[in-house]
Amino acid sequence: MGGSFYSADTPDSTWKALAEQLIPRLAGREKFGLQDLLSLFEEIPGEPFAKAGVEGAFWDAGAQHLGRPLFELLGGRRRSIPSGVAIGIYPSLEDLLARVERYLREGYQRVKIKIQPGWDVEPVRAVRERFGPVPLMVDANAAYTLRDATVFEQLDGFDLMMIEQPLAADALEEHAELQRRIRTPVCLDESAESLDALREILRLGSGRIVNIKVQRVGGLFNARQMHESCMQAGVPCWLGTMPELGIASAQGLHLGTLQNFTYPTDVEASARWFSDDIIDPLITVDRQGWIHLPEGPGMGYRVDREKLERYSTDTMVFDL
Ligand code: MG
User: Fold this and answer.
1) Which has the least CB within 10 A, 2, 8, 94, 245?
2) Which pLDDT belongs to residue 320?
C-alpha cells in the first residue's frame, strides 16, 4: 500500500532500510546461513517489512539451490490452500451484497466483511438473509471497545466463523473478557504483532484463532515460530496478507501449507488487487476457491524480469 496503511512501514521507509542498512551489511559476505541473517536482523531495530523481503529471498534462493520446493524447507506438505475474500465497507447494503455475490460466484471459500460502529449487525444480517449459511466472518480492525460488547453479543447469533480483531491491538485482557462472553471464536490480527505478543495472547486466552502475517512479524522464520506456538497451544491459525506483491504472497502460501494453518487465507487472486504483477504465473483461485502451488523448486512462481524492469520506479545495484 502507498503510505502507511496497515502498519508504520511504508514503501519509502522499507526502501531506505534495505538500501542503507540491510543490503550493505550483507554485501561482501561469501556465505551466510539463516542464523547469520537472524543475528543481523537483531542488530537493526524494527523494519519488519524490509526484513521479511530479505528473508523471503534467502529462503527462495536456498530452496532453488537445493532444487526443492520452498514448502518442503519450511516443513509443509504440498497441498492446495483455501482462499477467502475480504470485502471492505460499502455505502449501501445493496453494494455489499452485489460484491458478496460476485466473489462467491468466483469460488472463494469464505467471505469476510469489514465492520465498524454503525456498519456491523445489519450487513451481517443482510448477507445471512441473502446467502444463507455461507462461511462468513467479520473483521473490525480494532474499531470497538468492550463497551460495545452488545454488538458482539448480537453478532454471536449469526454463526460466524470468527470475529477478527474486535478491540484495540493492546487490549489483550479485554479480548479475553469478550471471548468469555461470546461463543463465536475471537481472532487476533493486529494484536499478534510479535512472538512476545502472541505469548501473552495464548496465556490470557485473548482469542481462539490467530491471523499470522509474514511482513508484520519480520519474515518467514518468525511467522513459522508463531505457527508452532499456536499449534502447541491448540490454537488454529491462518495466513493473512498486508497485502503484498505476488513474490511475498507466493512465499507466504508456501508457509500456509503448514498443518496448523487451518482456515482460508486472505491471499486472493493477483487480479483482485493488481492490474498486473511481476510473477509468472499469476496467483489464481479456482472455481472451488483453491490456490494450487505450481510445481518446481523455490516458490514455483518465476519473477518476470521484463515486467520487473518495466514497472521499476527506482533501482540500486550492490556488489555482493
Ligand atoms: Mg484483519
Assistant:
1) 2
2) 66
What is the CATH number for 137? 3.20.20.120
Assess whether 160 and 15 both reside in one domain. no
Q: Phi first, then psi: what are they for 234, rounded to 5°?
A: 75, 25
114 in active site: yes
* Residue 44 maps to a domain: yes
Mean pLDDT, residues 302-320 taken together: 91
Q: Is 289 buried (19+), middle (13-18) or exposed (0-12) by CB count in 10 A?
A: buried
Residues 65 and 110 both lie in one domain: no
Instruction: Report CA(260)–ligand 1 centroid distance (Å).
Output: 19
Q: How far apart are the CA of 297 and the centre of ligand 1, in A?
A: 31
The catalytically annotated residue of 31, 51, 112, 114 is 114
Q: At what angle do helices 195-204 and 172-181 cross, to 10 degrees?
A: 40
For residue 28, pLDDT beyond 90: no
Band of pLDDT at residue 158, cut at 50, 70 and 90: very high
Does the annotation mark 213 as catalytic?
yes
The predicted model scores a pTM of 0.96
Count: domains in the chain:
2
- Ligand 1 centroid – CA 114 distance (Å): 8
